[in-house]
Amino acid sequence: MSTEIIILLMFVLLFAGIFAGYPTAFVLGGVSLIFGLAFIGPSIYGLFITRLYGIMTNYTLLAVPLFLFMGVFMERSGVADRLFHALYLLWGGLRGGLGISTVAISALFAAATGVVGASEVTIGLMALPAMLDRQYNTSLACGSVCAGGTLGIIIPPSIMIVLYGPIARISVGKLFLGALAPGLLLAVLYMIYIWIRCTIRPADGPPMPLEQRDATLKKKLILLATSVVPPALLVVAVLGSIFFGVASVTEAAAVGAIASLVLAACYRKLNPTILKEATLRTLTITSMILLIAVGASFFSTVFMALRGDEAITRLFLDLPMGKWGILVLIMGILIVLGMFIDWMGILFIVVPLITPVAAELGFDPVWFAVLVMVNLQISFLTPPFAYSIFYLKGIAPAGVKTSDIYRGVLPFVGLQILALILCVLFPMIITWLPSHLII
Questions:
Q1: Which of 49-53, 90-94, 428-432 has the highest mean pLDDT?
Q2: What is the pTM (predicted TM-score) of this model?
Q3: Of 356, 269, 372, 272, which is closest to residue 314 (Cα–Cα)?
Q4: Is 247 exposed, middle or buried, given 0-12, 13-18 or 19+ CB atoms closer than 10 A?
């Protein structure tokens, strides 16, 4: 049987298992075991043990539970609540000010948590009712929360970036810095869209009444100092220590985890109950991520042993469309896959296949990796498996329909594609900061 047919059968069985609803980690491991024994033999067990040991001793992956722990405590410490009231007070007088503030809060909170679910649920519980109470257009309010929530997967320190680095063998620190500008670009595009829409159609986002946002300069400065500055300093400390070569990504994650504990204590939110909940939640999510990582490493082991990586590379390079045509094709495939498979499955299954192709085409590895991650952010807003929509629907008030959320996210999907195009046309958006990384 030819290599191409074996590889095709592997992917058919893999996607059939995932679409049937079986856990991704078990499908990856099961397919790997079946094809490994059938076409390689019992020696595949030795290869599996070697790959498992490699994951267990991967120092960079220690950053996953540390950043997750930091994110949980930032969520629990009341940071989002303080940011919410501070920015709403400062920007509520603008047309669409509450929507703009929601995106800004989401960006700041994303940089402090790195997890989409935590960001969107926390912000959505506060922001959506506030906008609806002030007669905001329902679809605009829903779209603002959904799009803002997805920033947690691209703005560093993001769990996706921490996982992507070891998979593609790229410095996580460089990926952090490369993803920062695209993440901020997305946030700015969202805010500009909300402002323009509410300027053209004032009824979609009326300003807050003066009596609800009237405050002295002293009160505004106090809010700024106690609500915005502490989490901003935490993020700057984590990213700055990486940029200036003071700490590795894992060490910076440890500093962030400790700092989040200190911040929670300062806000008087640190107690044994929250500590227990945060630890268990971190353990649960980390176990899920690493189990998928193990299954994916087994799959890639069998795939490469059967020379599947060479077959995929040849397939792309033989296409008569040039390097930019192949890039467009890869981006299109990722968008389609994102509609049906969660980002983690795409990350572990597809990235090892397309990274060698990008290298053969001569693309900068950091630039290509960040493009892929910006692309994967789109998957959170594209149905049927749009996690951001499901998160919001689970916490939305009774009057909010799923159709309202779908209509609300469509313009933001367009903005995500626009940001992707801008990153392709102007590579310096991604590459400028990493090129100045001090090692």
A1: 428-432
A2: 0.82
A3: 356
A4: middle
Instruction: Tell me how far CA of residue 214 lies from CA of 128, 131, 150, in angstroms.
Output: 22, 18, 31
Contact partners, residue 425, CB within 8 Å, separation at least 6: none
State how far the Cα of 3 lies from the Cα of 13, in Å rounded to an integer. 16
Rounded Cα–Cα distance for residues 145 and 107 (Å): 11
Angle, alpha carbons 194-105-128 (nearest 5°): 65
Nearest to 235 by CA among 254, 266, 256, 265: 256
Token pair listed for 90 = 């400062």
Give the Cβ contact number of residue 59 at 10 Å: 11
Task: Please give the structure tokens belonging to residue 54.
Answer: 């490699």
Entry field: residues in the chain = 439
pLDDT in tens, 98-155: 888 889 888 877 776 666 666 677 778 778 888 888 888 999 999 998 898 888 888 8
Q: Give the Cα separation of 430 and 132 in Å (integer).
A: 36
Structure confidence at residue 212 as a pLDDT band (50, 70, 90): low
CA distance 239 to 179: 12
The span from the CA of 439 to the CA of 206, in Å, is 49
3 state DSSP class of 150: helix
DSSP-derived 3-state class of residue 370 = helix
Residue 328 has pLDDT above 70, yes or no: yes
